[in-house]
């Protein structure tokens, strides 16, 4: 009834763009931070785009995203500069969060309720350091048994997505091998992490359109949907 293999007992959900609408807020915050940085440098390579977000930033830990995008433009920066850009992005994100709050996708809430009713255990694996706050604001914390977030990644020295470390840690905290866990992701980097970790099932959630579904399948998605309630 949940659209998953019978031996999957744990669901590992990414947060932004999978359960909540905050992926769009992250993208806008990144654009503000990167465009300001590029303008400051007098860089003529053009503004930060949605494709840049999807290819270099989406799903990755904050500093990894900074370095990945800037490297795509042939720019290398020191740690202080990378932290300054990342800090500007986070300030912009928190300002919108404070002003507008967070909305959970109705289809995702329906799926979480069905998963809980069916006995599927639930964890969240996100690169965001604001994971706890977003879950609380969206009213989703009650569904979640364990959380791996950006703070966990730093504190435990985990590699960020597309490496599988954070998802493997989520499965470990839930007490199951990867083969008994399903990964739910809206980012190509997260889909790739689920595939690299040899998880039992990798669900791609395409909220972008265009060729995103094809990219997700190429990265290792077992199935691609546009909303989680399609799996019910």
Architecture overview:
The chain is α/β, with parallel strands linked by helices. The chain folds into two domains: 142 residues, HAD superfamily/HAD-like (Rossmann fold), CATH 3.40.50.1000; 77 residues, Orthogonal Bundle (DNA polymerase, domain 1). Helix content is 50%, strand content 11%. The chain contains ten helices and six strands. Strands 3-2-1-4-5-6 form a six-stranded parallel β-sheet, sandwiched between helices. The longest helix has 22 residues. The protein is globular. The termini are close together.
Features of this protein?
232 residues, Rossmann fold, DNA polymerase, domain 1, 6-stranded parallel sheet, 6 strands, globular, beta-phosphoglucomutase activity, HAD-like_sf, isomerase, carbohydrate metabolism, magnesium
Strand order of the largest sheet: 3-2-1-4-5-6
List how many beta strands DSSP finds: 6
Radius of gyration: 17 Å
Q: How many distinct helices?
A: 10
User: How would a textbook summarize the main sheet?
Assistant: 6 strands, parallel
Give the name of the CATH superfamily of the largest domain. Answer: HAD superfamily/HAD-like
Mean pLDDT: 95
Structural domain tally = 2
CATH class of the largest domain equals Alpha Beta
Structural class: alpha/beta
CATH topology category name of the largest domain: Rossmann fold
Unreliably modeled segments: none
Label the overall shape: globular
């Amino acid at each position: 009834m949940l659209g998953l293999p019978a031996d999957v007992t744990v669901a590992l959900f990414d947060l932004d763009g999978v359960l909540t609408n905050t992926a769009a807020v992250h993208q806008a915050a990144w654009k503000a931070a990167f465009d300001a940085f590029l303008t400051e440098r007098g860089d003529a390579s053009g503004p930060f785009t949605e494709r840049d977000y999807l290819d270099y930033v989406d799903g990755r830990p904050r500093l990894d995203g900074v370095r990945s995008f800037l490297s795509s433009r042939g720019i290398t920066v020191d740690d202080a500069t990378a932290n300054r850009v990342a800090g500007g992005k986070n300030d912009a994100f928190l300002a919108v969060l404070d002003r507008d709050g967070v909305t959970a996708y109705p289809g995702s809430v329906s799926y979480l309720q069905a998963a809980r009713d069916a006995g599927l255990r639930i964890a969240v694996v996100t690169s965001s350091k604001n994971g706890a706050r977003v879950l609380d604001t969206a009213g989703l914390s009650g569904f979640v048994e364990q959380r791996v977030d950006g703070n966990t990644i730093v504190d435990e020295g985990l590699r960020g997505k597309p490496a599988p470390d954070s998802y493997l840690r989520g499965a470990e905290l839930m007490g199951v091998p990867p083969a008994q866990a399903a990964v739910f992701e809206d980012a190509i980097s997260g889909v790739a992490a689920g595939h690299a970790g040899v998880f039992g099932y990798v669900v791609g959630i395409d909220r972008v359109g265009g060729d995103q579904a094809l990219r997700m399948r190429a990265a290792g998605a077992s199935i691609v949907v546009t909303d989680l309630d399609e799996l019910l």
